[in-house]
Amino acid sequence: MAGETEAEPRIAVVGAGLIGRSWAIVFARAGFKVTLFDADAQALKAAKDWIAETTRALARYTLIPDPDAVCERVTLQDDLAAAVGDAVYVQECVPEELSIKRTLFAALDRLAPADAILASSTSGIVASTFTGDLAGAARCLVAHPVNPPYLVPLVEICPAPTTDPEAVARTRTLLEQAGQAPVVVRREVRGFLLNRLQGAVLNEALRLFEDGYASAEDIDRTMKYGLGLRWSFMGPFETIDLNAPGGLADYAARYGPLYETLGQEQADPRPWQHSTVQQLEAERRQHLAGDALTARQAWRDRRLMALAAHKQAQSDDSSN
Ligand SMILES: NC(=O)c1ccc[n+]([C@@H]2O[C@H](COP(=O)([O-])OP(=O)(O)OC[C@H]3O[C@@H](n4cnc5c(N)ncnc54)[C@H](O)[C@@H]3O)[C@@H](O)[C@H]2O)c1
Q: Which intervals hold domain 3-hydroxyacyl-CoA dehydrogenase NAD binding (predicted)?
C-alpha cells in the first residue's frame, strides 16, 4: 500500500505468540499499520524483538526491502479496547481452546467497530462454535494461516453458516492486498482443506511404515524427490491434468481404477499406534539428534526463505 496517511486502514492482531507476531509481519510488510495486543506483557515485548530479528533475516533473502519500515508499522498495545477500537480487520491468534476463543470473540464483538471483520487463526475449531450466537456473527469467520505465514502464503477462509458472504469477499480482498494466497472453504469442515490433505498423506505414510514397506527416510524421500517437487508449484488436480495426453479425464480413465482399489485398501482407519510412533521417533533421532531440532528448524526456515525468494523472482508465473 503506497502513501500512508492517518486514515490508513489499521489491522489489529490479538495474541502475539508464534502466529500473531508472524501475522504482524505479513500485514506490516504490505504497508498496513498493525496494532499488536497480548494479554501477557512479556509476550508482547518478546514479539517486538522477534519481529525485528525476523524482518532482518527476510531482508537478507531480499524478501523485504526495508526491515525498519516494517517494524515501525507495528505498534504494541496492552489494552484490548484501544487495540481494536479503530481496526478494519482483527486477526485473533490466542491459544487453541474453545473457551478462550469464545470469551475473546464476545469481547471483540463489543469493542471493535461494527463493520470490522473478526477473523480467527484457529487450526481446527469451526467458527460457528465460538461466534454463532454473537450479535455480530455475520462479520466473524476463520482465516487459518500456515506457519510461518510470512513465508507460506496460503490462508484458508472458512465462514460459519451465520457469516455474511460480503465478509468473506472483503477478507479475501484484504488478504490478497497483504500478499497472501487465500482460498475459501465453502462450508465448515474439521481440519479445513490443508490439514485434511496433510492428514490423508500422514495416515498413509504411517500405514506404509507400520506394515514394513519402507523406512521412514525412504517415505520422506518419496515426497522430497518425487511428489513434493511438483507440489511446490501445482496441486493434485493440475498434476493429473498434465500427466495424460488428453488431460484430467484421460488420466481418470487410465488410472482411476487403480486409485479406487488403493482407496479401498486405505479406507480402514487406523489409530496412530504408540509402538509405531516410537519406532518412527527412533529412526528420526538416528538422523537428527533431539538437541539439533532447533537448528534444523532454523535451516528449514532458511530453505523456505530461499524458496520464497525464488518464487518471487518468477513473479510473472506467481498467479499460476
Ligand atoms: N503454531 C502453528 O503452527 C499454527 C498454525 C496455524 C494456526 N495456528 C493457530 O493460531 C492460534 C495461535 O497459536 P500460536 O501457535 O501462536 O500460540 P502461542 O501459544 O504461541 O500464542 C498465543 C498467545 O496468545 C496470548 N493470549 C492468551 N490468551 C489471550 C487472550 N485472552 N487475549 C490476548 N492474548 C492472549 C498468549 O499470551 C500467547 O502470547 C491458535 O488458534 C493456533 O491453532 C497455529
A: 11-187
The model's pTM: 0.93
Strand bridging mode 33-37 / 74-77 = parallel
Cβ–Cβ under 8 Å, residues 248 and 241 = yes
> 194-287 belongs to which homologous superfamily?
N-(1-d-carboxylethyl)-l-norvaline Dehydrogenase; domain 2 (1.10.1040.10)
> In the beta sheet, which residues pair with residue 118?
90, 140
- Concatenating the DSSP letter of every residue in 64-118 gives -S-HHHHHHTEEEES-HHHHHTTEEEEEE---S-HHHHHHHHHHHHHHS-TT-EE
Paired with 156 in beta bridges are 144, 183
pLDDT tens-digit profile of 202-259?
Answer: 999 999 999 999 999 999 999 999 999 999 999 999 999 999 999 999 999 999 999 9
Percent of all residues in the chain with a pLDDT value above 70, rounded to a whole number = 96
Ligand 1, residues at Cβ distance < 6 Å:
14-20, 38-40, 43, 93-96, 100, 104, 121-123, 144-145, 147
Ligand 1 atom closest to 22 (CA): 16
Q: Backbone phi, then psi, for 112, in 5-degree steps?
A: -85, 155
Distance from the alpha carbon of residue 278 to the mean position of ligand 1, in angstroms: 28
In this model, does residue 2 exceed pLDDT 50? no
Q: Among 48, 171, 38, which Cα is nearest to 104's?
A: 38
- Which string of DSSP letters, residue by residue, matches 34-73? EEEE-SSHHHHHHHHHHHHHHHHHHHHTTS-S-HHHHHHT
How many Å apart are CA 75 and CA 280, to the nearest integer? 44
Domain ranges of the chain: 10-184, 194-287
Architecture of domain 10-184: 3-Layer(aba) Sandwich (3.40)
Residues 42, 188 contacting (CB under 8 angstroms): no
